[in-house]
Predict the structure.
Amino acid sequence: MNNVEIPGLDSRTTRVILISSGVLIAWSLVSSLIQAGPLSASIITYGLYLFYWFYALKFQNPLILRLVIFGTIAGILELATDHYLVSTIESLVYPGNEAMVWSSPMYMPFAWSNVLLQLSFVGVLLTNKKGILVASIILCIAGGMYIPLYEHLAKDAGWWWYQDNVKMIFNAPVYVIICEALISLSLPLLISYAEHNKPQRTVYLGMIEGVWILLSVFIAFTIAH
């Protein structure tokens, strides 16, 4: 199923997602350099999240709408994963001087939504050109490098950090890198399924992704802690 026309996948949307991904990286880098603190994480997270909703509704873009819904549901369920990392294995640490929900900052579900949207969109592009298998492999490798970039920058930015009682590569635990590669591996298949079903199915797929995030942590921590 290569080079199939997908509603919402166009050159303008591709530019918007790639530029917004660059903005997130640049913001994270600057926040790390100036040790900006948790407020800077909230600003970029809520700003990007609202922008994606605006873009989806303003331009009636069904692809971005599905990805926002998918990411939001998965991000909410990811709170269970955060709780496991913070309170069960005591690996992840948040500053604690900000509004929290369960064991996570209030912005965290939306931060996950933003990153999942960006990765999923790349997965759509790759799937459309290379097919699901190749797209999954490429995104697995890319996700294993892309998301840990934020893990590395987050420590100096004062957003979150990890205890050094696990194997680390810079500021990112090895198990986190494996986990996020596994998360990215799942995206092309789930998003491809969402494209060909009713929008309501996206909610269920987001739930599946949220559960897979937790399972990925169990698997990765077992392998590499």
Remarks:
- The chain has a mean pLDDT of 93.
- The helical segments are 11-34, 38-58, 62-88, 108-130, 132-157, 174-195, 199-224.
